[in-house]
Write a structure and sequence with these properties.
Elements: H1 29-36, E1 50-51, E2 57-62, H2 65-77, E3 81-84, E4 90-94, E5 100-104, E6 114-118, E7 130-135
Parallel strand pairs: 2-7
Antiparallel strand pairs: 1-2, 3-4, 4-5, 5-6, 6-7
């Protein structure tokens, strides 16, 4: 990774992020999840990745966990209002329907960025989960 994790989120606390993917016609999180399943298939139970050590956590293994987490985030957050978290350790996106997702590059699990998905109107197949991205062994 070319930048230190702390350099990835360098805007002013609480500033809106100028996101190149934002459009006047805001996307829904459900549509973004449908698009994500092309690259990150869902389990039969409607979850991304494999079961983690905790029941509320899923794991996606990748050769470069930071790049994979960033790719997942860009696809998931498309069209939402993106903000930095107050602690500058991540971002959150808010969708018009009230759904929220967070992306933290620094977590309590070393070298394992995490994304949490909270779908307000859960008409989609996805369950609300935390996903950690880990390096393949």
């Amino acid at each position: 990774m070319s930048k230190k994790p702390s350099d990835l989120f360098s805007n002013t606390i609480g500033d809106k992020i100028a996101h190149p993917q934002q459009e006047l016609n805001l996307a829904s999180i459900q549509e973004n999840i449908r698009q994500l399943t092309k690259d990150y298939p869902l389990s039969p139970g409607g979850e991304f990745g494999k079961a983690g050590k905790s029941s509320g956590v899923r794991v996606i293994e990748a050769n470069d966990q930071f790049k994979t987490a960033q790719d997942f985030w860009l696809k998931l957050s498309k069209g939402g209002e993106e903000l930095y978290l107050p602690n500058k350790k991540g971002k959150k996106v808010i969708f018009p329907d009230g759904s929220i997702s967070t992306y933290r590059i620094i977590t309590s699990t070393k070298n394992s960025p995490a994304i949490e998905i909270y779908v307000y109107h859960n008409n989609s197949k996805i369950k609300m989960k935390k996903i950690h991205f880990v390096r393949k062994d």
